[in-house]
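Translate sequence into structure tokens.
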Amino acid sequence: QNTNLPPTCQDGCWPKAFLPTIFLWAGSQQSLWNIHDDMLLEAIQHVFKAIYPEVEYTPTLQGSV
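Result follows.
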């Protein structure tokens, strides 16, 4: 568990759904090692909302997600 995550995210979806989805997205980018922060943040926000639609939280660059 990652105690920095919102309490509702302390479930199996984080390591089994959220992280693999972000990894797949990153791997599909033209340059895996050169992804701009704003592009990554947008992807994280979309994936977070898809996996945790009931959580009222918006990932930010300074946040724990």
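Note: The chain has a mean pLDDT of 90.
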